[in-house]
Amino acid sequence: MQDELFISIFDNTTTQEDVTVKSFIICLSVSVVIGLILALAYMYKNNYSKTFVVTLAIIPAVVCMIIMMVNNKIGASVAVAGAFSLVRFRSIPGSAKEIGSIFMAMSAGLVCGMGYILFSLIFMMVLVVVNLIYSKTGFGEKRDKAMRKVMVITIPEDLNYSDVFNDLLIEYTTQSELEKVKTTNLGSMFKLTYDIILKDDKKEKEFIDKLRCRNGNLEISISKHDNESCEL
Predict the structure, then answer these.
(1) CA 141 to chain centre
(2) What is the domain range of residue 14?
(3) What are the beta bridge partners of residue 177?
(4) 19 or 152: which carries more pLDDT confidence?
(5) 111 & 156 share domain
(6) Which of 101, 130, 164, 231 could form a disulfide with 96 if both were Cys (CB 3.0 to 4.6 A apart)?
(7) In the listed set 86, 107, 137, which residue is the last one of a domain according to the structure?
(8) Are the C-beta atoms of residues 24 and 83 closer than 8 Å to each other?
(9) Do 129 and 166 have their domain in common?
(10) What is the tens place of the pLDDT at every residue in 20-34?
(11) Together in a domain, 201 and 165
């Protein structure tokens, strides 16, 4: 009896028939519920947009519908594969978490579309729990995340930027790298962008004050590091 719960509702001992109205409603309803739970789980302590979570909620139902319609139909499967190969995402690249959530939703919808209702529910619940545990425990986060900063310094054009701040960077940071050099103010100034890790965030003002003495009191900014931009 327990083994029967893990058998596809489309399985038949003699032949595989077309999708019935009852099986269609069951699979589609379960995939909608799975999509809603996955969307709610992603919304927990994550930055998100309405369009993304709505898309995440309906992906399992869409994939479920496609799998049910092409089930055991080779010609239709090839046509669907060709159609999907023409689809291109024209929005900005997503983070690793967003892409992973989309694949998770597609997998759940695929399993549900094949008729394995209980497997799809177990798959969804396990991944939701594991994802929440990883997020809650800070799994994979860098220990120096809070100390990692982006520093932008404006200097006059006659100042040699290659080594002018080396001693201060050694004194106040554990790691520093010049990421970008840009001319500004009609070429009369340079804007330097550094990726740094501070030794002590309490000495940030002291660090800025000493930098101001070197760059002639021009603009200096220190901001949080954008970790999302380098996830993939």
Answers:
(1) 14
(2) 3-137
(3) 195
(4) 152
(5) no
(6) 231
(7) 137
(8) no
(9) no
(10) 778 878 887 888 888
(11) yes
Residue 11 falls inside a structural domain: yes
Cβ neighbours around 199 below 10 Å, total: 15
Claim: this prediction has a pTM higher than 0.85: no
- Please check whether residues 53 and 115 belong to one and the same domain: yes
Tell me the pairing of strands 220-224 and 173-184: unpaired
At residue 68, the pLDDT reads: 73
Rounded Cα gap, residues 57 and 70, in angstroms: 22
**What is the per-residue pLDDT for 140?**
60
Among 103, 137, 171, residue at a domain's last position: 137
Angle, helices 96-113 vs 50-70, to 10°: value is 30
Burial (CB count <10 Å: 0-12, 13-18, 19+), residue 136:
exposed
Residue 56 has pLDDT above 70, yes or no: yes
34 and 58 inside one domain: yes
The CA-based dihedral angle spanning residues 141, 91, 89, 56, taken in that order and rounded to the nearest 10 degrees = 60
Instruction: State mean pLDDT over 168-194.
Output: 91
Q: State the sign of the Cα–Cα–Cα–Cα dihedral 60, 65, 70, 76.
A: negative
The DSSP bridge partners found for residue 184 are 189
Could you list the beta-strand ranges (E) of 45-172: 148-156
Asked if the model's pLDDT at residue 62 lies above 60, the reply is yes
pLDDT, tens digit, 9 for 90 and up, residues 87-145:
554 455 566 667 777 777 777 777 777 777 787 788 778 777 877 776 777 656 656 66
Q: Is the pLDDT of residue 220 over 70?
A: yes
34: closest CA among 127, 100, 96, 98?
127
C-alpha to C-alpha distance for 217 and 213, rounded to whole angstroms: 6
